[in-house]
Each structure stands twice: as C-alpha cells, then as structure tokens.
Design goal:
Elements lengths: L32 H12 L2 H11 L4 E5 L11 H19 L3 E3 L3 E2 L4 H13 L9 H25 L10 E2 L3 H16 L3 E11 L4 E3 L4 E19 L17 E6 L10 E4 L5 E9 L14 E5 L3 H7 L2 E10 L5 E3 L12 E6 L11 E4 L5 H9 L41 H12 L2 E14 L7 E10 L11 H10 L2 E3 L2 H12 L3 E2 L1 E2 L10 E3 L9 H14 L2 H5 L3 H4 L7 E3 L3 E2 L1 H6 L1 H5 L21 E5 L6 H13 L6 E5 L2 E2 L16 H7 L2 H10 L6 E2 L2 H24 L17 H22 L4 H29 L5 H20 L5 H11 L21 H26 L9 E7 L1 H4 L7 H5 L5 E4 L5 E6 L26 H13 L2
Parallel strand pairs: 1-2, 1-24, 3-4, 8-11, 9-14, 18-25, 24-25, 26-27, 28-29
Antiparallel strand pairs: 5-6, 5-17, 7-8, 7-13, 7-16, 9-15, 10-11, 10-12, 13-14, 17-19, 20-23, 21-22, 28-30
Length: 975
C-alpha cells in the first residue's frame, strides 16, 4: 500500500487513516548535526572514563593504543582529522568488541617550528634571539605549545574523539622531560652513545643538524662543473711519458653539482672496476659564441664510458685516446693551488666502491667534510684529519683561503634559504686558475628541511650518535635487534614491513644531538680529558630528579655543582645540545605506558600494558615515529614498544593533487564540522581506503552526505516502525517466523561476523560498505517495501506483524551498535530517541547473534527470488510509464518461467513479494517473462489492494477481509 490513504474514498464515507499503523518517531529526517553534536558531547561528559569504568567492572581484556603525538602548533588540518578519526574508530570499536581500552592522547612540543615562532615574536619586539636568555626563551616556547595543546584538544573532542584527555601527555611536561632524559641515560650508560665528527645533514637556516626523518626532497636547479686536477705524481706502473715535458700535463677531470665544496677537496675517488683512458684533445667546435676553456693538446683522464659526454660538455669536436690508465698511484694538485699556497697539498687517488660510470666523469671529487661517502673513503684509506670549511651559519670559516666569510647559503633577509655567492666565486677562481673545463646547470632532486623548506648541506661537525652496529647485552646489534622486532610485528597493510625494514637495514648511526634551544637536553657531562660521557648513577639520578621537579630548563640555569656532587666541575663540560625531537617522541611509550603497568606496581583505574597493541600513524612515519620508537624500545628493552603498526596514506584534493594553501585546494575539517557535522567527516574516513592516499572535496563530500542520508533514513524508518514495540510483542520461536524474516535474520548473522572481523582487522571500509549495501538492497529495496503493508495494515497481534517488528528490533539493535564507532553522534541520537533512559549507545557491546539465525537455504531462496523480482519490477515500471497502471497495487502480473526459477516461491505469496494486488505464476518457457494485467477487483479503502474479498465482511463493505478484521480489532480496542 501507499504510505497513507489520501481521502476517505469509501462506500461508508469513513476515513480509515486513524486505523492505519503508520510509523511514528521524533527522530527527524534532517540530521542538523552541527547543532545536535555539541549537545550530545555535553550529555556524554567524561565518556571515556565512563567506558573504562564499565569495562573494568566486567573484567574486560585490556587493549592499548598508543598515540603518536601531533605537533602543538596551529589548528588541526585534514591530515589530523583523518588520523584522529581512525584512532577513534580503533578505540570505540575495541570498546564495542568488549575490551577495556587504554588510549592517552599526547602532543609533541619541542622543536624548530615553535622555536621559529618565538624568534619571530621576539624580533617583532625588537629583540634578537641572542639577546634573550635561554630560560626566558624556553618559557615563551612552553607557553606557546600549551596554548595549542588546549586548542587542538578541543578540536579533537569536537570531532568526537574519546580518550584520556584529562591525563593527556606532552613531551614538554616536566615528568616527560625527566623520563626522556632517563631513557637517553640508558643509551649513554650502555656504551651505545658516542661522539663523532662526520658529515651530517645540516640546515644553515635552522643552524642545526637534521636526521633522515626531517628531510624531504624537492626539485632544485644546481650549477654543474667539470674541473681539471693536474697530475703531479705517478707510480712506476704508469707509462714513462705520462708526465713527459713534450706533452701538456694531463689532468683528471671530476664533475660536481656543489662547486662550493671544491675548497674542501682532499682526494679524488675512482672505481677499481671502471675502464679509464688518457685522451688528447685534437680539435674544438667552431662557431661558438664564447671561447671554450679546453684547447687542442689538452690531455684528460676519463672513464671510457663517459669520455664522449665530457667532450660534448666541453665543446671538444675531436680527440684521440692515447692509452689505458690505471688511476691507482696517481697524485694531483688541487685545482686552486696556483692561486693560494693554502691549497698547496697533494690530492691522492682513492679506490672507492661508491664510484660508478653511470654519469659524470668516472671520478668523484672527494670532500670528506661534506659527504658521507667522501668521509668513509677518506677514513678507510687511513686519513684522520677532516677539514672544517663551512661554519654553522653556512659561511666559509675565516681560515679558508680565497673565500673567507663568503656565504654558501643565505640565512637572513629575503634570500633566506637560497644558495649564496660561494658557488659563483669558486667557479670564477677555477677559471682564473685555468682548471674549469666546462659548466652547466641541472635540475635534480635535492634534500630540503621539511620544516624550513630550505636546502640543506652536508657539513662536518661534532655530534652525538647512537651506534647501530655495536653488540648489545644480548649479543645482537641495535640494527639486528630492530630487524628482528620488525619481523615480529604485525603490519597493516603488510607492505609496511618491507618499507621500514629496508630503511633500518641501510640507515646510518642514529644522530641524536641538535644545536637549538627548545628541546630536551642531552643532560650529561663530558670528561674534558677523555672526551667520554660521565657514567655516575648518582649524578644521573640528581639530573633526572631536578628535571622532574623543575623541568628541563633547570639544566641550563642550575650550577654544575648541583648535579656533579663530589666531581670537580672544572674537569667536566656540560653538554647543552638538545635531543632529536624523534628521540623525544620515540620515548613516549616509556612515560605514557610503562608507569601504568602491573609490572611497575600500578593498581589505579587507568591500567596499561607494554608493549602497546597498536601504533597508528601516516605512512611517512616508517622513517619517523615508528622507527624512532622501534630503535628506542630495542635499545633500552630489547624489543619494539608495539605489537602492531597501522599506517594510512595522505589526503589529496579531488583531482589527486597535494593540498596547498597557496593553491587554494585545501579542505578544512573544522569547516566541514561547522557546516555538515563531524559524523559526515567521520563517515568519509570510514568510506575511503585509508591505507592508500585518499581524496576529499565538495563532490566527494556530497557523495558522503548521500550515504549518510541512506543510513539515517534507514534508522529513522526502523524507529518509526518500532514505535510502541515491547517484550510482549516479541516472537521467540524461530519456527513462527515467515521465510522473509528468516532471510533477514540470516543476513544479520552474516553481517555480524563480517563486522566483528573487519573491526578486529581495522578494515573500517569493510564495516560501513556492507552495512550500507544491506540498508539499500536488503532493507529498503526488499524488506521494508514488502513488509510495509503488514506493518501498516495487519492487526497488531498478527504473527506476521509481530515477526516483522521483532526482526526490525534485531536490525535496529545491531545497526546502532555496528555503526556506533563510525557515526557515534547519529547512532547516539537514534538510541536515546528510542531508549531515553537506556544509557549511552557508546557503552554497548555488539549484541550476541544466535548461530541458529544462519539459514543458507533462505539465502539461496531469496537470491533466486530477487532474480525474478528484477524482471517483474522492470515490467511494472514500464506499465507505469505507459500509464497502463497507476501503481503496483493496480497490477495483477502473470509471471511465466521455468519450474526451477519458480520453485523458490513455493509457500510464499507472490503478490506480497511483487507488491501487487495479486499475481499468477505459470511454469513454462526458457526465461522469465511478465505480462502485466490490471487487477480487476474492488479497491480496499484502507490498504488500496484490489483483491476478491473486498466487501466480504458486511460490517465493512469497502474493506478486504484482512483489513476488516484489523479495523474491527481497532474499533474494539479504541472504544
């Protein structure tokens, strides 16, 4: 029937609308989420505390999600929203599955972004950073971070996140800083820490060393130069005429994209397996607009494979290969030696495995202070002195001949982050010395600081490192222990294992020191005589206790005697470098989880366990937080602080482009919440494949709104259909249920297993998509449509109606539970609409689904029925379009089909399934054919069905027998 009769179109003139049991609910069709969600948040109060207390009363198993800390700087962005929503899905779904969940949100507070902001604030007041005491500067950083912790906390709560926000952690908390220092001391005291002078990635703009995780690569245009190093010495193995006065002095040619490193050159590396030759220039290209630096008679030593490319760059038209050359034993002069005696040293040839003949000249300019490979090959050949040529500000030291004070990189003003005049000055001097062979420009991928976006340089500087390849107490190295821990960890998706494994396999020693102000210090003393850290448990204990009481600032303000005790302060140097912020965040498990474990004597109401069950962050954290936590845990405890790692991709715009404020293609999560509600944003997260990069924008969000509307309307229909339902109406004998109800119960049984497993495996898309399909296909298009007539028009005590309402109750109870982690506000609204005194929907555990609801036979039956139903619906729609019928109840179709296709209808009312007044099933033919005839019977004034028994009850001459019986019941019960 239709939703309700339009007019009292009856022989008796009675209006039967009051006798029709239409759905009744106060749950509105429109969500109004931006207004309702804040009210629901108020009603929840301390929802997380309530849920933990409830689960602990139930002796629920404990599940621990450890929060990777966002940075306390600015409003949340779409990446934050994705990350925190996924974490909330985990927390809420684990509560739903019956766990007690420990989740303490945290914030990363130290580091350069905040330090820069505070520098800007002081500059705006006319004060340079070096005019501000470290204590005052750090206080300003602390206040800044605290402001944004509060701001982001409120924004995460508005998103619907549940967690122990009342006991949040922050890396700048005094207790946190003390714990980080204590963890650092473990590395110091175990011998894993050492001080080394080697080239590290250095940001002149930020004036600090950077780790791999702080680097990103961007396209960059660099100058390229081919430089001649004149040969000055040969061994007995070389031809006698190599340095003959009859010929010009041969030169080895190198190629580099960093001309500024030429003053730091101390050697040339070659490949032992590469074929080299001595070449003589015989002719130059003609008609050039400039005079080339090469000339006929020049003799050059090059890799044979690359000689032609070099001559092309140098505008050489013709050449002769004189003979083979083995570079071993050759020595050259520095290319600037003729201009300053400071470069008057000999430049040796060193064999190196890193040299290839894929590009360049087959020789590698080796500046051991500015490259990792350069440093290693220099050391491997017994050289120990590494020149310091560039200072922390990116300028040449005063002792560098010809170039003292020149900037390699600009660190102030409008040109900050741009390469300075050093490259150009070096090239001009090479031309003056007659040793520049050619030059050009090349666009290539170049490392930049992910914070400042400025290029970095490699620079030799003393730093503190943690050894990756020194045996630990277990006998394995930190690298070996970490690789085993990776193998022991579950990864979601599984590809994450290989990604982090390859990174750990090839990573260098862990650089943990930084030369900045805002961070946790390497709070230790170094013996001035030996250069080794002081190992004294009492000193360490005093340091940790002072930081726990006063914060890390005390390290920079208290006198050394407060910490050193009986040790002579004059003998020790206080280390004032700060720790890599990744060490900070990598230690969070030590002060967030460890203190609340039974092993540490914890007996309170916030228990945790170590290791955590899950770490969840973006895929970039394979080289960031996941890796630093892995190394920290393995270095101090012999295993990773997590059992499983889940990673998500990045959020792009609708066109798959990276979001950028300058492009104007960003999507602000706070705007979505304000305009549409947090549940819309959360549903978008649930619908995407988070393991890959996702897209968001207006069109995609509109699709999400459409999906939300389907879920909301389904729940609304159930609420209306279940108005007044109570236990006296419930059917409990499964044999009394019609086949259609048995099919829906089977689908609930099927979905229940899928939903539970999907939540267990963190496959949230595999929760919401099957549930949406269930709502659209099984409920809306089939079950609700078929049962509408029974719900509206059957007697309330009829078995069919009671069965339908019993099943709808089961559907409601499961939908509101299944979807609670994903759209908690809407499901809470639905739950409290039906059960105002029923507590929070969030506190529920997924209802038990009986095994005897499984019914494969009914599933097969309704799959076959649906195949026939599709054909019938197509023909009914065609009849409506042709205006042969007004609606389905005007029709009496005849369906002809083979016996096997009609067999599933045995025992069922085909007209009820087709939603027509009647139907005929005829065996025959090879396929389903449908003839739509008019139902040639009177129309029931109440249900609008055209059936033969209309008027069979004299008391109700305008009703069918079923409707007459229902109205008689109504009249009797309503006086």
């Amino acid at each position: 029937m239709a939703d309700a009769p339009e007019t009292p179109d009856t022989a008796s003139g009675r209006d039967y609308r009051d006798t029709v049991f239409l759905p009744e609910t106060s749950f509105p069709m429109r969500g109004g989420l931006p207004q309702k969600e804040p009210l629901i948040l108020e009603q929840w109060g301390d929802l997380y505390g309530t849920l933990r207390a409830e689960r602990q009363k139930q002796n629920a198993p404990l599940y621990v999600l450890h929060d990777g800390p966002p940075y306390a700087n600015g409003d949340i962005h779409i990446g934050h929203a994705l990350n925190k929503t996924l974490k909330d899905f985990v927390v809420r779904s684990r509560f739903l599955l019956g766990y007690d969940v420990d989740y303490v949100p945290g914030w990363d507070c130290h580091g350069l972004p905040i330090e820069w902001k505070i520098e800007e604030q002081f500059r705006a007041k006319g004060r340079r950073k070096d005019e501000v005491s470290k204590d005052e500067f750090r206080r300003a950083c602390r206040d800044y971070a605290g402001k944004y912790i509060d701001l982001q906390r409120d924004q995460f709560l508005r998103l619907g996140a549940v967690g122990d926000f009342a006991n949040r952690y922050a890396t700048m908390d005094f207790a946190s800083e003390a714990a980080i220092v204590a963890e650092f001391h473990k590395f110091k005291n175990s011998g894993q820490l050492y001080r080394g002078s080697k080239p590290v990635m250095w940001s002149p703009v930020e004036r600090t060393a950077l780790a791999d995780a702080e680097i990103e690569y961007h396209d960059h245009v660099s100058p390229t130069i081919w430089v001649k190093f004149p040969v000055t010495g040969v061994s007995d193995d070389h031809p006698d005429d190599l340095l003959s006065f009859r010929s010009s002095t041969p030169s080895i040619v190198i190629w580099t994209t960093t001309p500024w490193t030429i003053p730091a050159n101390r050697a040339i590396s070659y490949g032992p397996e590469i074929a080299y030759g001595l070449y003589e220039v015989t002719a130059m290209e003609e008609g050039l607009e400039f005079a080339p630096w090469a000339k006929p008679g020049d003799r050059l030593i090059l890799a044979d494979k690359l000689a032609e490319d070099v001559f092309k760059a140098a505008k050489v038209a013709a050449w002769t290969r004189v003979y083979d050359i083995n570079p071993s034993g050759l020595e050259t002069a520095h290319p600037l030696a003729a201009l300053d005696s400071g470069y008057g040293f000999s430049v040796p040839l060193l064999a190196g495995d890193h040299v290839t003949d894929d590009a360049g000249t087959g020789f590698v300019h080796t500046a051991p202070g500015h490259g990792a490979d350069d440093f290693e090959v220099w050391k491997a050949h017994g050289h120990h002195e590494v020149p310091d040529t560039v200072d922390p500000d990116g300028a040449y030291y005063d002792h560098v001949p010809l170039f003292a004070g020149l900037k390699v990189m600009e660190t102030e003003g409008k040109k900050t982050g741009k390469f300075g005049p050093a490259n150009g000055a070096v090239m001009e001097k090479l031309i003056e010395a007659g040793n520049l062979l050619a030059r050009g420009r090349m666009e290539h991928s170049y490392p930049h600081s992910w914070r400042s976006k400025a290029p970095i340089i490699f620079r030799n500087t003393p730093q503190w490192f943690i050894r990756m390849d020194e045996p630990l107490k277990s006998g394995d190295t930190l690298r070996e222990t970490a690789l085993q821990a990776i193998d022991d960890t579950a990864f979601h998706p599984a590809a994450g294992r290989n990604r982090i494994r390859s990174m750990v396999e090839g990573r260098p020693d862990w650089l943990v020191s930084r030369q900045r102000a805002w961070g946790t210090p390497l709070a230790m003393y170094m013996d001035k005589q030996t250069g080794q850290p002081l190992h004294d448990p009492e000193v360490d204990a005093r340091i940790v206790a002072a930081i726990a009481e006063h914060g890390a600032d005390i390290w920079f303000t208290a006198p050394d005697s407060d910490f050193l005790g009986a040790h002579d302060p004059a003998r020790y140097e206080k280390v004032e470098d700060i720790l890599d912020v990744w060490f900070d965040s990598g230690s969070t498990h030590a002060f967030t989880l460890d203190p609340r474990t039974p092993e540490h004597g914890y007996t309170g109401d916030r228990p945790s366990h170590w290791p955590a069950d899950l770490y969840l962050e973006g895929s970039d954290q394979h080289r960031g937080w996941f890796q630093s936590s892995l190394l920290e845990g393995c270095g101090t405890r012999g295993r990773a602080p997590f059992k499983a790692v889940l990673t998500h991709g990045f959020t792009l715009d609708e066109n798959g482009e990276k979001m950028s404020k300058s492009r104007g293609n960003t999507t602000d999560p706070l705007t979505i919440i304000k305009e549409s509600g947090a549940d819309i944003l959360r549903l978008w997260v649930a619908l995407v494949d988070y393991s890959d990069d996702q897209r968001i924008g207006k069109q995609i969000l509109q699709t999400t709104v459409d999906a939300y509307r389907k879920l909301r309307n389904t729940v609304r229909y159930l609420l209306g259909a279940l108005a007044g339902f109570d236990e006296t109406e419930r059917l409990t004998d499964l044999d009394q249920f019609p086949p259609l109800e048995k099919f829906i119960l089977h689908r609930l049984w099927e979905l229940d297993a899928q939903v539970r497993q999907a939540y267990a495996d963190y496959r949230f898309q595999d929760v919401v998509r099957p549930v949406l399909e269930f709502c659209s296909n099984d409920l809306s298009a089939l079950y609700f449509d078929i049962r509408k007539d029974a719900l509206y028009c059957d007697r309330p005590d009829s078995l069919r109606r009671r069965a339908a309402r019993t099943v709808m109750d089961a559907v409601f109870m499961r939908l509101t539970a299944w979807l609670s982690p994903l759209t908690p506000f809407t499901m809470e609204e639905a739950w409290t609409t039906r059960f105002p005194e029923g507590g929070s929907n969030c506190a529920r555990i997924i209802p038990h689904t009986p095994a005897d609801w499984r019914n494969d036979a009914e599933a097969a039956r309704w799959a076959a029925i649906n195949a026939v139903l599709e054909v019938v619906n197509e023909q009914l729609e065609a009849a409506r379009r042709d205006k042969r019928i007004g609606g389905a109840l005007d029709a009496w179709p005849t369906v002809t089909a083979p016996a096997e296709l009609l067999a599933p209808f045995q025992g069922l009312d085909a007209a009820e399934i087709f939603r027509t007044s009647g139907a005929e099933l005829v065996q025959g033919g090879d396929a389903v054919t449908v003839s739509v005839d008019l139902a040639d019977y009177p129309k029931c004034a109440r249900s609008w069905r055209r059936v033969p028994d209309v008027g069979s009850d004299p008391a109700y001459p305008d009703l069918s027998a079923r409707d007459a019986d229902a109205v008689r019941y109504w009249d009797q019960t309503h006086g």
